[in-house]
Design a protein that fits this description.
The chain is mainly beta and about 120 residues long. The protein is built from no helices and seven strands. InterPro entries: Cupin_2, RmlC-like_jellyroll, RmlC_Cupin_sf.
């Protein structure tokens, strides 16, 4: 199977059925990520957070969607904490401060679409 030569920063095979949660393993005490697609128009990235791990508050200039593949997370957007479980998603609006924390270890798919500003 050919690799996605048009996608920088990825080694995910093209035109092949894959189970997303299996593309990334948990690591004790860490947050790990794997780029699936990295283009000028947007990115798709898998993340695995060990329990208690997170990303500190930050902003992004584009809307982003977080979809939980496994586990439980607290996503705080503009000071509002949201509890997400497996199969749930949230959209993080552009330029709004947000942070993520693993209530239980979790895996997520982050989809960010870049648009002209």
């Amino acid at each position: 199977m050919e690799q996605n030569k048009g996608h920088s920063g990825t080694n995910v095979p093209a035109a092949k059925v894959l189970a997303l949660p299996g593309l990334l393993n948990y690591q004790e005490g860490a947050v790990v990520s794997r780029t699936v697609i990295d283009q000028k128009t947007g990115t798709v990235t898998l993340f695995a957070f060990d329990e208690g791990q997170g990303l500190s508050e930050h902003t992004a200039p584009y809307d982003a969607m977080v979809y939980l593949l496994d586990g439980e997370a607290e996503v705080t957007i503009a000071g509002q904490p949201l509890h997400l479980k497996t199969g749930e998603m949230v959209i993080m609006p552009a330029n709004q401060p947000h942070a993520l924390r693993a209530i239980r270890k979790f895996k997520m798919l982050l989809i960010m679409i870049r648009y002209a500003m």
